[in-house]
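[recover] target loaded
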């Protein structure tokens, strides 16, 4: 009897050793089949399974008949070299390496290998792309005008924009805010950040005004839905807003005001840090406000700020032309 599994609509057959249309042969191919089947059983995303299938099939074709336990870090480095020879960029090579690492982590957990040779191979160093940050003038234009006519809940949407830019919150921190996290008496927010860490960050006057204008609409919504909810930001069903919804709302507002299509919630956090630095704020203070564990993370904003300074110099200094 054929042992069949399903990879999100595609059949995995052990007898033909085919996964998602790709041939997997030898001991490594069999291990890859089992790994892919485990991904499906764990309800991994369809795109993840398809990507792993493609990348690991390529790895299997390079390795040939060797057993997983016979493959060392030298052979994996050789595989990455071949990928470069094929013309793949660093990002693609890093993705292939990540797939091999995931495979070997699973093999180690299953007791099929004793160690993960891919862990000894360094990830290709990827170029750090600096995000395009809206100018202070662009942000003021967005925040000093009415929300778009298409906004389903304009009072709430203004709060979203004011808090992301005015307090530098992460998207996840924003949606996690509860009403009792607002300290009205001292104009501050209790923010629950990464790793369960908490910090106090200022609540700007503009954000405070937006929240006060939003609260009666929030209360009316809950009354109509006959619900209670501690969350500050609610959707129209009266439940906590999701990060995905925030991303969609931010993009909609940005596009309506002529900002680039790649604007997302984290862009406003970058703008918060960059604009503070441009206006003379201390780097350590910005680190504290953003909740960065390492100062090196905050120092990224000096790169963003210097880019702005150089542009100003090039455009304005008579000896720069």
């Amino acid at each position: 009897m054929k042992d069949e599994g399903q990879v999100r609509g595609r059949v995995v057959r052990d007898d033909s050793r085919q996964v998602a249309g790709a041939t997997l042969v030898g001991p490594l191919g069999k291990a890859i089949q089992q790994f892919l089947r485990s991904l499906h059983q764990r309800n991994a995303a369809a795109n993840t399974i398809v990507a792993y299938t493609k990348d690991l099939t390529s790895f299997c074709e390079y390795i040939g008949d060797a057993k997983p336990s016979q493959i060392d870090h030298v052979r994996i480095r050789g595989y990455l070299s071949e990928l470069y020879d094929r013309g793949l960029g660093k990002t693609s090579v890093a993705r292939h390496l990540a797939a091999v690492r995931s495979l070997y982590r699973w093999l180690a957990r299953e007791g099929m290998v004793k160690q993960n040779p891919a862990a000894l191979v360094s990830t290709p160093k990827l170029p750090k792309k600096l995000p395009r940050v809206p100018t202070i003038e662009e942000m003021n234009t967005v925040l000093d005008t009415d929300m778009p006519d298409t906004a389903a809940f304009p009072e709430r949407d203004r709060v979203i924009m004011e808090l992301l830019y005015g307090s530098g919150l992460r998207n996840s921190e924003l949606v996690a805010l509860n009403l009792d996290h607002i300290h009205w008496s001292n104009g501050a927010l209790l923010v629950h950040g990464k790793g369960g860490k908490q910090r106090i960050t200022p609540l700007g006057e503009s954000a405070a005004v937006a929240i006060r204008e939003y609260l009666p609409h929030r209360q009316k919504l809950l009354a109509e839905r006959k619900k209670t909810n501690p969350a500050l930001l609610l959707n129209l069903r009266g439940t906590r807003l999701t990060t995905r919804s925030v991303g969609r709302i931010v993009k909609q507002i940005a596009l309506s005001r002529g900002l680039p299509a790649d604007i997302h919630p984290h862009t406003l956090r970058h703008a918060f840090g960059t604009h503070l630095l441009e206006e003379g704020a201390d780097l350590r203070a910005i680190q504290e406000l953003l909740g960065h564990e390492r100062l090196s993370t905050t120092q990224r904003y000096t790169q963003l700020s210097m880019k702005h300074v150089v542009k100003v110099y090039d455009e304005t200094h008579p000896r720069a032309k």
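[recover] notes: Confidence is low (pLDDT under 50) at residues 1-22.
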